[in-house]
Specification:
TATA-Binding Protein, 130 residues, alpha+beta, globular
Length: 130
């Protein structure tokens, strides 16, 4: 299992994110601190979003400045776990089309959701996890 972080504006909570996947071809389970999303026909392709505010402690001021500049002065931090890079890319694309996010790929690269979308559209084989 691999992971990365997404930042959202503080008004975007897990319930807002889960609404993006309601009535779709995905299986989804939601509780107060976690969303689990998988393909209905293949549960091996899963994506989990967890609300873990303490993660913020691992960021330095320069990284947080980037988040402040691109999200707002108040934001939420979510840990995302996944198994399939392709499925995770697909899920983040859905989220980034509707919600302003910053993605931390866990390899010292922070990017806006817009940049993430642009790169995945221009370079479909781009391995954003490196």
């Amino acid at each position: 299992m691999k992971d990365f972080i997404i930042f959202t504006p503080s008004h975007v909570v897990l319930n807002n994110i889960s609404l993006l996947f309601s009535g779709t071809e995905y299986f989804m389970s939601v509780d107060h601190a976690e969303i689990y999303i998988s393909k209905k026909e293949n549960e091996e392709s899963f994506f989990k979003i967890r609300d873990i505010p303490s993660i913020i402690e691992s960021y330095d001021s320069e990284e947080l400045d980037f988040v402040y500049e691109n999200i707002s002065s108040s934001f939420n931090v979510y840990l995302c776990n996944y198994r399939s890079v392709e499925f995770a890319r697909h899920i983040i694309n859905i989220i980034a089309k509707k919600i302003s996010v910053v993605v931390d790929n866990d390899f010292d690269q922070l990017m806006t959701g817009e940049e993430f979308l642009r790169r995945t559209m221009q370079e479909p084989d781009w391995d954003w996890t490196r």
